[in-house]
Amino acid sequence: MTGIIIISLLLNVVCIYFIYLLWKKIDENHKKAESTDHIEELLELFSQEMRYENEQLYKLISDLNSKNKHDRQEIHEKPIKKGIESINNNTINEENNEEDDEVHIESKSTPVTNKVIILAKQGYNAEQIAKMMNRGKGEVELLLKFYS
């Protein structure tokens, strides 16, 4: 009978040891779960921060793009407006034409030809002149080649 009691005590000790091991494993799993929860929270905060920074960067880039488009539009419109104003207002003096010996304008040339040559002297290229005068680029290039 004492042998059965000893075996029973040994089995109880082994069972208590296994219960202790299981309790330790469960505690580790809870700690891992807490640490994974903490890591998930950190990753979520990081992703929110990145999202906010990306939105700020996107706004900055879109502001710069719209500013650049506006600046490019102003750059392209200014020469055209100046050329149109000079044509419409006839602000170009005859003295400027006589001073420039590079281009000789015949007295029989049309006003369109004169305007094309004057704009070319001001530094506009054939494409810009064609847009300003609502003429074809080839026509303007031909006039410039003929009278230059």
How does this structure look, described?
- The chain is mainly α.
- The chain has helices at 2-89, 94-99, 111-121, 126-133, 137-147.
- It starts with a helix and ends with a helix.
In summary, what is this structure?
The chain is mainly alpha-helical. It has helices at 2-89, 94-99, 111-121, 126-133, 137-147.
DSSP summary, beta strand count: 0
The biggest sheet amounts to: none
Which segments are poorly predicted (pLDDT under 50) over 5 or more consecutive residues?
A: 90-107
Count of DSSP H/I helices: 5
Helix-strand category: mainly alpha
Mean pLDDT: 78
- How far from one another are the termini? 131 Å
Series of secondary-structure elements, N-terminal to C-terminal: HHHHH
The helical percent reads over 70%
Shape descriptor: rod-shaped
β-strand amount: under 5%
CA-atom Rg in angstroms: 44 Å
How are the secondary structure elements laid out?
Elements: H1 2-89, H2 94-99, H3 111-121, H4 126-133, H5 137-147
